[in-house]
Specification:
Strand order of the largest sheet: 1-2
Number of helices: 5
Shape: flat
Structural class: mainly alpha
Helix content: 40-55%
Radius of gyration: 20 Å
Number of domains: 2
Length: about 170
């Protein structure tokens, strides 16, 4: 029997012998050091059952956060600002365009949050990034193809960064 798991760096599917369980090895895809899970070991903790009420509260809070973000973006919209609106209105109505620098910062903050394991914090940036439309996609591509990563992202491996960029593109498409 084999142990099947995914590399935490590049998400490649890895199959290892049972005897490798509980040991460290190299990913055949990105050559980073990975831990092969030991399937024979008993977990030293009990998982709590999923609380449906808590899950509903989380969904409600995410919806409220989305609506508040939309309201804030709409409040920032001024008719005489000279800035044009995105041609693709969001379901909540047209939203003021944020400038490219603010959009770039939101994308970098999203990537940094993902790398730090702060997935909920990263999700907060999705609404702002998605509002950027094609401009956001262009900035994401620019960050992904850059030979010199932004200073906030330079400690993230290129494979890991590519994985986060891919997930971000999927979420805003």
């Amino acid at each position: 029997m084999t142990i099947t798991f995914h590399c935490e760096h590049c998400s490649k599917k890895i199959e290892a012998k049972d005897s490798a369980g509980g040991k460290w090895g190299k990913c055949p895809g990105c050559h980073n050091k990975v831990y092969v899970p030991d399937l024979t070991a008993e977990p030293d903790f009990d998982l709590a059952p999923i609380d449906d009420q808590e899950e509903q509260q989380k969904r409600k809070l995410k919806e409220e956060t989305f609506q508040l973000t939309q309201n804030i973006l709409q409040q920032r919209q001024t008719p005489d600002s000279g800035q044009e609106q995105d041609s693709e209105p969001t379901p909540a109505g047209p939203v003021m365009r944020i400038d490219d620098e603010e959009l770039r910062e939101s994308i970098i903050d999203y990537l940094r949050s993902k790398a730090d394991g702060k997935d909920e914090q990263a999700e907060d940036y999705i609404t702002v990034i998605a509002a950027g439309g094609k401009r956001a996609e262009a900035i994401i591509d620019e960050i992904a193809l850059s030979d010199l990563p932004d200073k906030q992202l330079e400690d993230i491996s290129p494979q890991q960064l590519a994985g986060y960029v891919r997930k971000l593109r999927e979420q805003i498409s």
